[in-house]
Every structure is written in structure tokens, then in C-alpha cells.
Amino acid sequence: MIAIRSLYLILLLCIGLSSRTQFPAIDLIRDRFYHAATEKDQLSAIIELGSFRNSLNADTAKRYFTLGRDIAVRLNDTRRLRWVEYYLLAGELTKGNTDSVIPKLEANPIFRFSKNDDQELYYKLQLLKANVLNRTNERVKAIEMQLSLLAEAEKDKNVLAQSYLRNYIGASYLNSGRIYEAHTMWLEALAMVAGSSDLKIKEIETTITSNLALFYFQQIDSTLNAQKTDSFLMFNNAVIANSKQYHFYWLLPTALSYRGDYFGLIGDLKAGEADFKEALAIRQKIGDPLYTVNDMFRLAGFYKSQKQYDSAINVLLQTIQLIKRAHLKEAIIRVYGPLSYLYKQKGDYKLYSAALEQFILDADTAIRLNDNEKISELMTRYDLQKKETLIANQKAELANRNLYIIASLLVLALTLTIFYFYFKEYKRKQFARNQAAVEEAENKERKRIAAELHDNMGVHANAILHNSSLLEQASSENGPLIQNLQETAREMLGSLRETVWALKATEVTATETWLRLVTFMQQNKRNFSGIGFQITGAAPETQLLTSVKALHLIMIVKEAVTNAIKHAKAGTITVNSSFDKDWIITVADDGKGFDLHSEQLNIEGNGIQNMKDRAAAGGFEVIIKSIQGVGTTITLKI
Question: How many domains does the chain have?
Fold first, then answer.
């Protein structure tokens, strides 16, 4: 046994000597490990090395922490045994072995300890579970766990745990398309930790700063807005400076890749490419596939901005292979959209069509929309819980003040009258503030109940549809009337779904709106096999729409397609999206067309007037052109 351990130490020594000079701070800790006089000193060095685990190659880290586990068992050091076991599980996640992390964590008896024994490790372990859920595309469960932990950390007044949780919740919001909620969460977290000299807090401060740099970089467009550019450079330069000063090597490649993107925007290809290659070299040494994928994705975007389409395609194809090896299910959705765009730019329409079809398949629109609804519900629940906690704390503080006042009155009888009137007035104001907080919470609850009542309309529409089907089976009489009733119920359900979707958020992305239209056209393709349905193009990635505007846009396109199906006798119906200064959506058919100026059309053309009214309400332009015998084209300028 001693001989095996000696060979293991020799192996670690050889590995350590062969991988020096990349990260000097890590090399110093390794030196202390190799020259340690006792196993206790060796274990201390391994625990210290755990602070840099994100900067270590996953296999190298596993060898150190496995040895640390053996030493901790021999020394009967339970507390540090928990930490090396945690580092080993975190390494499993880094290598992409997401399926094994939670079962191993829950099965290991060493982790069955009281939160009071080691509060920092308790929150680290719970956050590790949430990170596994995030990487396996169970984002709603991850956010639910993170929000619950945040409420718990706020009760514990644990600043370190709160800052970690706010940072990861912000990242989860960003991945869900809620960029402004993410921005708010990060700013709150940064305000909590700014100015601290504690190394652990300095690390999370740098991580949050890196996320804010990303937020501001995503706001920069081709005009290079000075305010947004300055904000990005300020945060990104702070990340680079802190990463070098405090040896946060795993954060440095992120800042380098952001700077590479910035060089791409200003046209400095050489400098940008150098930053990306340096960032990827560090990432590959560390070995975390998720962050490597993010950097490769940005490098592809950099090549795309420089119109080096072959280089961008090559990077994305390598990214797909890495994603599949690491089982990063959520990340695959981000690749096929840009890949289809690159194939289209090259004129390879066969590969463009295949990539676009894969993108639509992987996006799984219904699940993503459902996730957003659940996330909104979780956010509301967290806000309500936070207010309830605030009210409870205020009541507790009020009770404490009452005890202090009573004790003071017993001692200082002379001031009884003056203090009584002061306290009575203070209590009245405090009660008014509490009432206002309660009323605000009740208002939120009433809005949620109103939404549920609105959803119940769907039940009634389904009941109409079901009962009319039974009526149709029972009797063939009044067939047209029954069919009209069924069609009305279906249209009611469709309109209800779109209305509920629009009410769930203040703003939605153009991409999310476009995916709903893609789904609508796919449904028509299945329902009307005699008509050819085509949908082409893509939405602008960075454009946001108000929920009302998005609803009007979807309903106009649906109206136009439905009219073409019912009245045009078309062989093909095409919906196309393009964008330059404006986002342009066209609905075209090769049907019989109509005379825009006929009196009969003015009498019966409620559909056309509805489209015009919706366009006016949404604040965009609708152009209707029709030639009899040729077809109809409806153009929307958003």
C-alpha cells in the first residue's frame, strides 16, 4: 500500500513538473505539496488547490483530489474530506459527465451534514445540483432551486452564498432570453460584494463583472454607441486586471474572447483572432467543454462578421462535435441557426435547408415557451416570498422595539408622555408601510388569478369543439353549421393561446415570435396536404418587440394565411422573413387574387380591415397587393 502511494506521488510529481509555467500561482501551491513534510501539510495544499480547480485540467485535478481523499480518510479529517469529495464531483461536471453528479452526491453519506457545520459547502453543493440541471436543459427546475436557495441565503444573511446565487440566477435568466432581469440580478449582486478584499468574494465579483461585460457587449451594434462601448470596456478591463492580479485564470479567456469580438467590430482581424486563439488555448488546458463551446461560438461569430464564412463554418462544425461528446443538450440549439445562415451566404442551399430544419427541430418551441411561463411563475413566487419575509422581519423588529420601549419607560418615567406620542405616530406610519407592502403582494396575486381565469376560456372552447364533434357523429343534419361551430372553436383556441403567450412577458424576442409562425406553418402543412406551405428566412437575433406588437404581428400573418387557404384556391402559400433597416415579413400565394377596389370586397372584407387595424395598433405598416388570376402578396414592415 505504501509502495503504491509512493508511485502515485511520483506520477503526480512528473505531471506537475511537465505542466508548469502556464499558471504561476498554481505552480507555487504544487511546490508546497511536493515539499510538504507531513500528510496534513499535503492535504492543506490540495484544499488550497481546490480554489483554482476551474483553472486546472479536469484529469489533473481529479488525480490531486483523489489523493486528497485518501489522505483525509487516513487522517480522519471529515470536514476536509467533504471538500475534496465536492471538488471531485465538480470535476465530473467540468468534464461533461452530467448524469453521474447528482446520484453520486445524494448517495455519498459524507454529504449528510448539518448546514450549521459548514454553511459555505452546503450552498456550494446545492448550487452544484442546480448547475447540473442547467446543463441538462432542465432550466425551470434549476431556477426554482436557485430562487429557493437565494431566499434561504437571505435569511441566513450569507453574503457569499447570495452573491454566488444571484450570479447563477442571472445566467439562467440570460439563457431564457430574460436579459434585463439578468442585468438587474447581476447589478444587485455586484453591489453586495464590491470593495471586499476577501479572495472568495473577489472571485465572484470578477465573475459577475464578466457577465455584465457580456451584457453590455450584446447591446453594442454596428454604430459602436459610445456609452455602451465604454460600459463594456470598463467591465471587461476590470475582469482582465482582476484575473491577472488574483490569478483567476478560468475567467481570463472569457474576457479575451469578448475583447476579440470587440476587435472584430472595429475591423482589427489580426488582434481579434490572436485574442480568441489565446482564450481557446487556456480553455483547452482547463478542459471545461461548456465554456470552450461558448468561446468557439464567439469565434465563429467573429469570422462571420469578417465575412470569412468557411472559417466560421469550420469552427461551428467542430463545436457541434464537442457539444455531442460533452452531452450539452441545450447548447446544440445555438449552433444550427448561425450555421444555416452561413450556408445561405455561401449559396449552398442544400446544406442551408438541412441546418435550418435541424434548428427548428431542436428548438422545440412548445417546450421553450412553456419553460418561460414557468420561469415567470417562479419569479413571481420568489418576489412574493421575499415581501412576506420583509413583512415578517419588520414585525419582528417592531416587537423588539416595543420591548425596548417598555423597558425604557419603566426606568425613565419622566419621558413617558413624550415618547408615547412619538411611538404612536411611528407605529401608525410603520403599519401604513406594512399595509402598502401587503396590498402590493395582493395585487400581484390578483393578476395571477386573472390570468388563470383567462386560461379557463380554453376549457370552454375545447368543450364546444368536443360537443360539436359528438353532435356531428350523432346526426348528419346541420353539417355546415356544426363545421362552422368547430372552426370557430379552433380559431378561438388559437387566438387565446397567442393572447396568453403575449400577456406572459413585457417584451419578447423577434426570434421567439418567428418560431411561433414557423410552428403555425408546420401545422398547416399537416392539416392541408393539398396546398404547398413554405417558410423561409430568419428573424433579427437582437430585436425585441413589445408583447402587444408581437401579438398583432402573429395575428396578421395568421389572418393572411387563413384567408389564402379559405378563399384564394392557392397551390402554394409562402411566408418569408428578411431584415435590413426594417424587419420585413411577406405572405404570398399564387391563388385567384381579387380586386382591392371592388364594392363587394369593401362590404365583406373584414379580414383585410382587421389586418389594417392591427397594423395601426401595433405601429407598423401593412401593404396589400393582389392581381386577379396571379395571386396576393401582403407585406409587413416592422
Answer: 3
